[in-house]
Amino acid sequence: MVTTVRMTPAFLLQVALLVFACGQAAAQTTEWSKLPRMQLERQYAGPLQDTIIQRWRDPVDGTVCYIYLPITAPHTPPAASGYVQYGANTIGSMSCLPGPATPARAAAPAPASPAR
């Protein structure tokens, strides 16, 4: 199953409302620089000039995400929390795939019967 998220202004508004509904104080206490990171595995030239496609992997569950974005995007200076504002621009899109299934563990062999 492939999940595609397009970061349109409407989508960003929905995310902002969700964050607000979850508690504005909780969202502000996490510093961006301290959040966990995904692993950048590969970078490709995008279909349009000055765009790229990046492949990122979640080190916890193996989820792979492809992100299409411009090479530069103007934003505000970082706030004290480390967050910046990109304005109303669409800054990219992302598609994610679940990580590889973990193999089932082999059943433990039955104990050997004692020799008589």
Protein model, in words:
It is a single chain. The protein has 116 residues and is α+β, with helices and mostly antiparallel strands. The protein has one domain. It is 18% helix and 26% strand. The chain contains one helix and five strands; from the N terminus they run βαββββ. Strands 1-5-4-3-2 form a five-stranded antiparallel beta sheet, with no helix packed on it. It is elongated, with a radius of gyration of 21 Å.
Describe what is shown at a glance.
This protein is α+β, with helices and mostly antiparallel strands and 116 residues long.
Percent of residues in helices comes to 10-25%
Low-confidence parts? 15-27
Q: Give the N-to-C terminal Cα separation.
A: 56 Å
Strand order of the largest sheet: 1-5-4-3-2
Key traits:
single chain, 116 residues, alpha+beta, five-stranded antiparallel beta sheet, 1 helix, 5 strands, 26% strand, elongated
Protein topology:
Layout: E1 3-6, H1 9-29, E2 39-45, E3 51-57, E4 64-70, E5 93-97
Antiparallel strand pairs: 1-5, 2-3, 3-4, 4-5
